[in-house]
Design a protein that fits this description.
heterodimer, A: about 220 residues, alpha/beta, six-stranded mixed beta sheet, about 35% helix, globular, B: about 300 residues, alpha+beta, Alpha-Beta Plaits, 2 domains
């Protein structure tokens, strides 16, 4: 489903964020990419989502070379991904419901069907009672759950999460990880980048350790 | 097809919602663009009326040949034959004195004046369309005709008509130029308005793109917004010109009636009004398109 082949990411200033890494993630697998800040975890996820392109090597998602996709094909790819951003990227002018509805608007879902799916996603993350609230009124944990609801509302095959428990206490981190595990259990491929290995305690998944842009043995 | 229709409907809804969120800014923007569109439109209507008024004058570049009052129809026929044989005469039209009098009576204010006169004061006349309008050719023509017996006068002074026609053409071109300049300005105004809108929604655009929104999806509401604003601005321009024409029309008519005449001011037809509204919508769409394309290239 996801295949990195000798992928190198070098920035114009010469910094090499990824140094020829190779690995693959099978459908329905849950993988935690761990490593310190600056190890290249976020870059790796950004390469999968096509937000950046590899300098050398390739990144294949569903047998498509992400680095060579044109804009329309990249949009289609992203619509099949669920993205949980490190900084949430919530829209503060939209309420909880409308934030979650955005991927469905993009996919062109009819309003009634979209509303049904949004409520189901909000129910799953425990935010249904707050559907009319605005993100500014939510706690950090609720904002993270809102971000997850938006990432899964369109039932993506792959879920990418960048530091999903970064700003949360341990209790909340467990709740969030349990959520990811529940999505994985229904067949969603999950790729989580985190520096907080303790947050992954009790989570059954494959671990890949990144160190200075290379996979640790 | 359903998804396509749905996405357009959604974009349209979002465009309307955007207008509702900022009613004052939207109204001001529409007012500015509406006035800008009304300017060339107003000039066009003015020019149209001026052309119609000028058309009522005999501005045709013809040479007038007036016979003496004593000239009979037989004399006129003899002269007509000579006139038709002239090398510089393209067309010769005979105006008999009875028809000329009837025409004059129909002219505003002349009927009363003519009623007080005995008999027909008008002579038989000819109207000649020359082949060449060169001054020297006209002088030769005038001299030759003046020498015919029973010819009282020859009038070939229609330079004013040509000047009027030239001025009308100049005014038309000027209005066209003004319209073009204002259209470009309107596109810039639309572009700037849309750009500001996009900047306020930059975060939403960036997030939408990250989660799979195509450029078309992002642009569509802004294109509708631009077209909608343009349509409303076009309708405002039409309303302004119609209102102004109605007001000026009443004043002109009141003035004309004091001279015993009647003058209905020409205004915009339904097709012309619809064309102006459509032009507004198209300009709005173009402004939005350019702005959106530049914005998406930058971000």
């Amino acid at each position: 489903m996801i295949r990195f082949s000798a992928a190198v990411k070098r920035y114009p200033n010469g910094f090499e964020a990824l140094k020829g890494i190779s690995f693959s993630v099978e459908p329905g697998e849950m993988v935690a990419i761990t490593g310190h800040s600056g190890a290249g975890k976020s870059t790796l996820l950004r390469l999968v989502a096509g937000m950046e392109r590899v300098t050398q090597g390739s990144v294949l998602v569903n047998n498509q070379n992400v680095g060579q996709l044109a804009d329309p094909a990249l949009c289609v790819l992203r619509r099949n991904l669920g993205l949980v951003f490190q900084d949430h990227k919530l829209l503060f002018e939209r309420n909880v419901f409308d934030n979650v509805a955005l991927p469905l608007e993009i996919a062109g879902f009819p309003r009634v069907e979209a509303a049904r799916r949004v409520r189901a996603a909000l129910d799953k993350v425990g935010l249904l009672p707050r559907e009319k609230a605005f993100p500014i009124a939510l706690s950090g944990g609720e904002q993270q759950r809102l971000c997850i609801a938006r990432a899964v509302v369109h039932r993506p095959a792959i879920l990418l999460a960048d530091e999903p428990t970064g700003n949360l206490d341990q209790e909340y981190a467990k709740v969030i990880m349990a959520l990811f595990q529940s999505f994985n259990q229904v067949g969603v491929t999950v790729l989580i980048a985190t520096h907080d290995e303790s947050g992954m305690a009790g989570v059954t998944c494959r671990h890949l350790a990144l160190h200075q842009g290379a996979l640790a043995p | 097809m359903n998804a396509w229709f749905h996405s357009h409907l959604q974009a349209c809804r979002r465009a309307f919602a955007r207008m509702r969120v900022q009613p004052l800014a939207t109204a001001l923007s529409i007012a500015v663009i509406g006035v800008a569109l009304a300017l060339p439109l107003g000039f066009y209507v003015l020019l149209n009326n001026a052309s119609t008024a000028a058309g009522r004058l005999n501005a045709e570049p013809n040479v007038g040949v007036f016979l003496t009052l004593a000239a009979t129809e037989a004399d006129a026929k003899a002269i007509e034959q000579k006139l038709r044989a002239l090398p510089n005469a393209a067309n010769v039209r005979f105006i008999d004195r009875t028809t000329a009098l009837a025409d004059l009576k129909r002219t505003a204010g002349m009927a009363d004046l003519l009623a007080g006169m005995e008999g027909n004061p008008l002579p038989h006349a000819f109207s000649i369309t020359p082949k060449s309008f060169a001054a020297e050719d006209l002088t030769v023509l005038k001299k030759e005709i003046s020498a015919y017996p029973k010819v009282e006068a020859v009038s070939a002074e229609f330079e004013w008509a040509r000047k009027l026609s030239r001025f009308a053409r100049f005014a038309e071109n000027l209005v066209l130029l003004l319209a073009l300049v204002l259209c470009v300005a309107v596109v810039f105004v639309f572009g700037n308005t849309i750009r500001l809108q996009m900047l306020t929604q930059k975060e939403e655009i960036v997030v939408a793109r990250l989660i799979g929104a195509s450029k078309r999806f992002v642009s569509r509401p802004f294109l509708y917004y631009g077209a909608l604003q343009g349509l409303l601005a076009g309708l405002l321009a039409v309303a302004l010109v119609l209102g102004l024409t109605a007001w000026v029309g009443n004043e002109v008519n009141a003035l004309a009636e004091s001279y015993g005449a009647h003058f209905d001011l020409l205004t915009l037809s339904f097709v012309q009004a619809a064309a102006v509204a459509a032009t507004g919508a198209i300009l709005g769409w173009i402004g939005a398109f350019v702005s959106v394309a530049l914005f998406l290239r930058e971000h």
